[in-house]
Amino acid sequence: MKIAVFGLGYVGCVSATCFAGEGHEVVGVDVNPEKVRIINEGKSPIVEPGLDEKIAGVVAEGRLRATTDFFEAVANSDLALICVGTPSEKNGSVRLDYIYRVAEQIGEVLADLDKYYVFVIRSTVLPGALNLCMNIIAEKSGKRPGEDFGGCSNPEFLREGSALKDFYAPPYTVIGEYDQRSGDVLAQLYTKIDAPLIRTEVKVSEMVKYASNVFHAVKVAFGNEMGVICKQEGVDSHKLMEIFCMDDKLNLSPYYLKPGFAFGGSCLPKDVRAITYHARKKDLQLPLLNSIMPSNRSHVERSIDLVLAHGKKKITVLGISFKSNTDDLRESPMVDVVETLIGKGYDLRIYDRNVHLAKLFGANKEYITQKIPHISKLMVETIEEALDHGDLIIIGNNSAEFKEAIKNIREDQVVIDYVRILKEIDDARKNYEGLCW
Ligand SMILES: NC(=O)c1ccc[n+]([C@@H]2O[C@H](COP(=O)([O-])OP(=O)(O)OC[C@H]3O[C@@H](n4cnc5c(N)ncnc54)[C@H](O)[C@@H]3O)[C@@H](O)[C@H]2O)c1
Known about the structure:
Layout: E1 2-6, H1 10-21, E2 25-29, H2 33-40, H3 51-60, E3 64-67, H4 70-75, E4 79-82, H5 97-110, E5 117-121, H6 129-141, E6 149-153, H7 163-168, E7 173-177, H8 180-187, E8 197-200, H9 202-233, H10 237-246, H11 268-281, H12 287-290, H13 292-310, E9 314-318, H14 333-343, E10 347-351, H15 353-360, H16 365-371, H17 373-376, H18 383-389, E11 392-395, H19 400-405, E12 414-417, E13 432-434
Helix pairs in contact: 1-3, 5-6, 13-14, 15-16
This protein binds nicotinamide-adenine-dinucleotide (NAD).
């Protein structure tokens, strides 16, 4: 395939060189004539192990060249990989103007060309950037997106220092496609790359890159803060993290990474408080760990605000324990939600099979009837009775019976799902709202 790579910085140089090495005909475009000259001399403008030799090879074979002339580059290619910078402003906002400038340039060229072209963003951009570029290209060229030209988001996951290795063995290749035809063209570039190929919606793809980098940052900060506590306590932090990382069921796993409701229960809040209080006493600064309880609290407030915004006074709560299949109400964030709504004068009915049984016979009987009698007296025995009451229904935990029940609710009832009980939102009714999806 004939490829134009816009932006010969780190990502552009590695992408241009590696795709040329895969047998594609690549032209690199940069506004900096110095970078263009260096590449055309068969050298690397960036420092990266192995890149100098690889560039020398593909330039000598005539599969990679560079230019400052974007017009010529687009005219002689079928697809553009946009790798220009997206730096931070002083206030933290990301500058996307280089990306939009390239979209304008490509639009100008396509105005006079009669061929299908695919615009691909490799740079890290906020959700919505590709769609905006498609509009810019359409406006500049007078051509129709999806008909005359296509677009994809295709974020880059390489790490400086091991970029060549990462290019050939990334964790996965993500293609966010404007339409299937665009994705089909781009997917041809990856047939020889040994990694799962994921084709998805454009905005999901754009966001995957941010989720990855933010998570990596959280991991570094978490490891460092645990190390700070360990040093104070004379604990070997590396031994600790080695053991911690051996747990791939709960620690290094998809577990706990599904957007949903706040955490609760008898362990997580208690233990986060214990370790942060202990660190405070020792004057240790642990901003990440100290932010966990406030973050959880603000999520509970968000869940309450969502209910208030609907302005419906009669409310049904399905599930009040902190997760399904338990009757444990200690530190259930749903108890906070319910208490706030009662305090504001809302008319509630609560159904939770496990808590109802515990109220009658269980170990939690005393806690339920004596510590939270104001909640206990709002509990009803059957899900039908509960559903009959509310104009708004809150799904508070993942009990299987709730999933079935909300399929049959009345047209005038609104469901607010805190736990994503409906896995496929397309299946959901119109009067359904998720807490963070
Ligand atoms: N560096 C990394 O390890 C890495 C990894 C993954 C993703 N990313 C993302 O990839 C993007 C590029 O990063 P980088 O480090 O390669 O950037 P960089 O700043 O090193 O290089 C950007 C290049 O784009 C050129 N440029 C700007 N406007 C242009 C235009 N209109 N036409 C042609 N060239 C133009 C600049 O002259 C520069 O050479 C960023 O969004 C970054 O966040 C970077």
